[in-house]
Amino acid sequence: MVYWNQTCECMSREEMHKLQSDRLVNTVKRIYHNVPHYREKMQKKGIEPGDIKSVEDLSKLPFTYKQDLRDTYPFGMFAAPLSEIIRIHASSGTTGKQTVVGYTRKDIDTWAEVMARTLTSAGADRSS
Prior knowledge:
By secondary structure, the protein is mainly alpha-helical. It contains five helices and two strands. The protein has a two-stranded antiparallel ribbon. The radius of gyration is 17 Å and the shape is globular. The model has no long low-confidence stretch (mean pLDDT 94).
């Protein structure tokens, strides 16, 4: 078997659980403190960042709906300042108001890593 990132792709279930939980905790803290819309939704459910300790707590978090993106148009769901956004994707808005998603350099790097891992697992290589 060929791996793009053997460390990530071969970690134990326990290591994966810890990594996912750590990332969830950090994400919840970031959005709570940087995205007023999410903070309000969490407060309405009586949730604070400290209540989220692992992936088992996902069910405590409020859902995000496409309408939330429309209600906060254009940049109200960004958890990073506009100065850190390097790419923006927007829908055409054919079924309502446009939705906008912004990406930081780290987001783009993460996406590149995920796609490389996906394509490698499907058998692609540098010559494909």
